[in-house]
Design a protein that fits this description.
Number of helices: 9
Number of strands: 0
Structural class: mainly alpha
Radius of gyration: 18 Å
Largest sheet: none
Order of helices and strands: HHHHHHHHH
Shape: globular
Distance between the termini: 19 Å
Length: about 200
């Protein structure tokens, strides 16, 4: 099967996730900057972090499927598995926000991020298995240091949040920053191997 429908469906789901998150933001009751900060301040920050995470997944998903020519049933289910965990991000973001960063919601947010990272790894495995040992994706991933480091940092963030939620949040934010730094592996592989031409 070609990847077109899977990509279009995934793009639509990710767009809905972002829309649901922005609808959770509260409109300030007054007309001053102080009203905006007191009503929406930390909500805007949690939205920003989650928006960045969804953007990172959309970007990496797009690059991944530039290197995948066909999918099978396992890949379709692995993609749905990823979308399931990402679809929970608005819920865990809102819970963390409304609880004013209470321990359990922050830890739950971290578990959500960890589960999405694991699901993305499973999707990579399913996609490379569908294309065989010479999969362009497998060759482009290489050692995948960031992919291996992220779950470790999520686990550390979840454990740390049990003691200090701000250190846990700093670790979750750190993972997002790591992934915001452009990763040229796939783009370089596409250019060097003339994939998609």
């Amino acid at each position: 099967m070609k990847t077109d429908r899977l990509e279009a469906f995934s793009d639509g789901v990710l767009a809905v996730i972002i829309t649901v998150m922005v609808l959770e933001l509260k409109v300030p009751e007054g007309h001053t900057l102080h009203d905006a900060v007191t009503t929406t301040g930390h909500s805007l920050l949690t939205y920003l972090l989650s928006f960045i995470y969804i953007g990172i997944y959309w970007n990496n998903h797009h690059h991944m499927f530039q290197l995948i020519g066909r999918v099978d049933g396992r890949t379709l289910w692995a993609n749905l598995h990823l979308l399931f965990w990402l679809s929970l991000v608005p819920f865990t973001t809102a819970w963390m926000d409304e609880s004013h960063f209470a321990r359990t919601p922050v830890m739950t947010y971290g578990v959500n991020l960890l589960a999405a990272a694991i699901a993305y790894f499973v999707l990579q495995l399913a996609a490379t298995a569908a294309e065989g040992p010479e999969s362009p994706l497998r060759r482009a991933l290489g050692a995948d240091r960031k992919g291996k480091l992220s779950p470790v940092l999520y686990i550390a963030g979840i454990a740390t949040a049990a003691v200090n939620v701000w250190i846990g949040m700093a670790l979750f934010t750190g993972v997002a920053i790591i992934w915001l730094v452009p990763d040229p592996r796939m783009e370089r592989f596409i250019a060097e191997n003339h994939v998609g031409e």
